[in-house]
């Protein structure tokens, strides 16, 4: 027993021995696992509480769809939204994420933390495949640093625990890239089919987050000279595109059957989405819009501190024997993605989520490159420099996320609770809220009701009568007490409840439309 202990100590104390290298490798692995676990557990601080900003409207859409699957059964071909009255059905992205949430609701109850854990599971899966990709191409050290930075980027901190589908698309995109690389390199049909299956789901959920990965993949095929096998597997490689085209055809067919409610200002049928995804050519020459996007990329993807290392990673090579051309082409694909889908990238910060993988890689590459510079190489215990750089990036990420995210809309949160208490569960609500649109779910979801969202200024007796014919049972009006509209005798007898909200000078009125007086001229 004593001899065994002395032998182990001897191995640890002598550098260059195989046992010592194994010990360092083991220690490095445990440090990485501990750091990654702590980074993932940071989300627990924001796992509870109501849906928060930014972009609560997108989260409310996802949350309602999952709740509808839970209550009425999962129908992947006909998902529901809460802002199309009793029609409800609207097809956009393939609702696999929402279906997973609904299944989790059946196991653990329909609670928001359960849904957030599903998002977190997809995010961690995306991080795992990013680790595998970088390890496969660049080695374990850079893979560990890339993964840690990906776990702690500001956008990751918020959206990885939000009621949001984007990281499920990123998960399947990363899985597609890794499996296809392995399949092509090893000429294994199983890996390639797995990559194609992941690609199908990535394209169905959010094709813009996946298509550009074929650019670095094509480079990989060229470098590896795997032309014959790639051509042999071409049907599997194009299958995601075919499935995406079929899904878009299905979406067009279903959405074209939506009611013709064009008397509601800004109402759309969602059968032509080009205006949203592509925007106008002039937007791409607008300096202000470019400034907004670039500022988000540096502050919310890289952090201010990480941006310095990102630039270093672009121009310095972390290991001379391992060029980063593959990842530079990945970045080039993302620039193409940005130029094509410019309008949503300008409008919503979560459209920068696909950049997180590549910014994390180049930040890690920059840290490694700086540490390997000749001027720094002579510094003893350089691992402390790496640790210090990572801590600075993480601290900057937490500071940025805590300042920019997690804020609650108190008006809609309280109003939704009141509506849920004072209306029937199957009521169809006309929600008249300032600064809304017909596609706004933020009040209706919080009330757990379906209906229509309209601006108060467009509410007229004619509009109400048409929506009553469509099934509307209640009108809810929210506004500042000094600007809350008065609808006159048409709704005097219909007023059911009126409350002052906790937010200063805001009030909510609930009308029962069955009690309304006839409109003038009837």
Brief synopsis:
The protein has 522 residues and is mainly alpha-helical. Helix content is 61%, strand content 6%. Helix 22 links the parallel strand 1 and strand 2 (450-454).
Q: Which geometry do the CA atoms define? A: globular
Provide the succession of SSEs.
HHHHHHHHHHHHHHHHHHHHHEHEHEHEE
Instruction: Please give the number of β-strands.
Output: 5
The percentage of residues in β strands lies in: 5-15%
Provide the low-confidence segments as ranges: 1-17
- Helix fraction, binned, reads 55-70%
- How far is it from the N-terminal to the C-terminal residue, by CA? 100 Å
Structural class by secondary-structure content: mainly alpha
Number of helices: 24
Oligomer: single chain
- Counting structural domains, the number is 3
Strands of the biggest beta sheet: in what spatial order?
Answer: 2-1-3-5-4
Mean pLDDT: 90
Give a short account of the largest sheet.
5 strands, mixed
How would you describe this structure to a colleague?
- This protein folds into three domains: 2-44; 47-404, no CATH class; 410-515.
- Helix 22 (442-447) links the parallel strand 1 and strand 2.
- The chain contains 24 helices and five strands.
- It is globular, with a radius of gyration of 27 Å.
- Helix 2 runs parallel beside helix 6 (140-152).
- It has a five-stranded mixed β-sheet.
- The chain has 522 residues and is mainly α.
């Amino acid at each position: 027993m004593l001899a065994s202990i002395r032998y182990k100590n001897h191995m640890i104390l002598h550098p260059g021995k195989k046992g010592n290298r194994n010990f360092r490798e083991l220690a490095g692995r445990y440090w990485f696992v501990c750091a990654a676990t702590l980074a993932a557990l940071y989300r627990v601080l924001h796992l509870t509480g109501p849906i928060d900003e930014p972009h609560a409207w997108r989260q409310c859409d996802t949350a309602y769809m999952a709740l509808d699957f839970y209550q009425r059964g999962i129908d992947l071909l006909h998902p529901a939204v809460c802002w199309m009255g009793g029609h409800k059905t609207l097809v956009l992205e393939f609702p696999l994420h929402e279906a997973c949430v609904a299944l989790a609701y059946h196991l653990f109850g329909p609670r928001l933390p359960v849904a957030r854990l599903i998002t977190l599971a997809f995010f961690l899966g995306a991080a795992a495949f990013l680790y595998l990709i970088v390890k496969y191409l660049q080695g374990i050290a850079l893979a560990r640093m890339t993964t840690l930075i990906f776990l702690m980027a500001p956008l990751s901190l918020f959206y990885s625990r939000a009621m949001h589908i984007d990281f499920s698309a990123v998960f399947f995109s990363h899985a597609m890239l890794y499996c296809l690389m392995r399949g092509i390199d090893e000429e294994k049909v199983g890996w390639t089919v797995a990559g194609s299956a992941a690609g199908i789901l990535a394209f169905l959920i959010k094709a813009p987050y996946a298509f550009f990965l074929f650019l670095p993949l094509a480079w990989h095929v060229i470098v590896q000279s795997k032309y014959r096998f790639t051509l042999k597997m071409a049907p599997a490689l194009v299958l995601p595109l075919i499935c995406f085209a079929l899904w878009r055809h299905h979406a067009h067919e279903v959405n074209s059957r939506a009611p013709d409610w064009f008397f509601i200002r800004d109402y759309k049928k969602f059968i032509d989405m080009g205006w949203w995804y592509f925007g106008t050519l002039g937007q791409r020459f607008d300096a202000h819009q470019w400034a907004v996007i670039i500022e988000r990329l540096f502050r919310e993807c890289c952090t201010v501190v990480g941006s310095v290392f990102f630039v270093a990673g672009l121009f310095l090579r972390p290991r001379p024997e391992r060029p980063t051309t593959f990842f530079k082409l990945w970045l080039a694909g993302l620039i193409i993605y940005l130029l094509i889908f410019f309008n949503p990238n300008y409008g919503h910060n979560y459209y920068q989520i696909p950049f997180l993988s590549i910014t994390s890689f180049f930040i890690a590459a920059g840290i490694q490159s700086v540490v390997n510079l000749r001027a720094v190489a002579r510094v003893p215990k350089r691992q402390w420099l790496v640790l210090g750089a990572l801590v600075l990036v993480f601290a900057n990420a937490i500071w940025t996320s805590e300042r920019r995210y997690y804020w609650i809309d108190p008006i809609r949160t309280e109003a939704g609770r009141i509506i849920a208490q004072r209306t029937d569960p199957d009521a169809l609500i006309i929600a008249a809220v300032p600064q809304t649109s017909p596609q706004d779910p933020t009040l209706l979801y919080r009330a757990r009701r379906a209906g229509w969202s309209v601006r108060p200024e467009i509410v007229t007796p004619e509009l109400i009568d048409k929506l009553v014919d469509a099934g509307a049972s209640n009108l809810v009006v929210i506004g500042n007490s000094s600007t809350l509209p008065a609808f006159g005798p048409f709704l005097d007898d219909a007023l059911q409840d009126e409350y002052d909200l906790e937010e200063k000078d805001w009030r909510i009125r609930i009308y029962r439309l069955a009690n309304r007086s006839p409109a003038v001229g009837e």
